[in-house]
Automatic annotation (TrEMBL):
Function: Pyridoxal 5'-phosphate (PLP)-binding protein, which is involved in PLP homeostasis.
UniProt similarity note: Belongs to the pyridoxal phosphate-binding protein YggS/PROSC family.
Pfam families xrefs: Ala_racemase_N
Listed cofactors: pyridoxal 5'-phosphate
GO molecular function per UniProt: pyridoxal phosphate binding
Statement: the UniProt record of this protein carries the keyword Cell wall biogenesis/degradation: no
Transmembrane feature ranges: none
This protein's name: Pyridoxal phosphate homeostasis protein
Recorded superkingdom: Bacteria
InterPro entries: Ala_racemase_N, PLP-binding_barrel, PyrdxlP_homeostasis
Amino acid sequence: MPDLPSLGQRLSTIDDQIADAARQASRDPALITRIVVTKFHPASLVRELYDLGVRDFGESRHQEAQPKVAALSDLDARWSFVGQLQSKKARQVRAYCDAIHSVDRDSLITALTNDESVVPLDAFVQVNLTDDQGRGGVLLGDLDSFVDRVENAAGLKLRGLMTVAPLGEDPRPAFSALRSLSEGIAARHPDAQALSMGMSGDFAEAIAEGATHLRIGTAITGKRPDHG
Ligand SMILES: *Cc1c(COP(=O)(O)O)cnc(C)c1O
């Protein structure tokens, strides 16, 4: 049996693929942030990734992320919260994250707003491009006004838009749609043109459509221990 690729090999394979996709799109790979999503993995794996040079990490569940980030507070890492977030947990998440990619409700804006002179929290507005209203994200008809409210919230820095491509379909139309929406808000929000899109199975398509922040889990970390 051939040996399974190591963590370092998987990381460099994905980084090569990111660079290739960027070149094909005539984009500079240095302008693309690769966030490694470490949910369900122990702090020790984050440490290994850190030693391999990774600085941007993502988590999606507060009860798991909070102790993990605390155990890694000696690292100079940046943490992004990418999962659905309950308003009543938002203040706590804000305390240990540098960015939230799933801002999609007014109650979340309220909970994340901070009038004290803190470092602003990077905020991505999640857009729901599926027909399923139960999935996270702002519906298209509400997007413009919602984006304005995030922009005006004290202590939040609007960075751009985020989406998860619909399951079981070609992801490219969704990524293209997010890019168009971003262009649509560019006149009012010229500093909020970031696009958080692309996961293990679809990051190349996302790069082709202008992704600036990739959220990649299993392709780098391997199978998630508890939930495969
Ligand atoms: C888990 C997760 C990812 C990473 O998914 P992979 O398919 O493992 O790359 C990206 N975005 C969100 C919102 C997630 O919850």
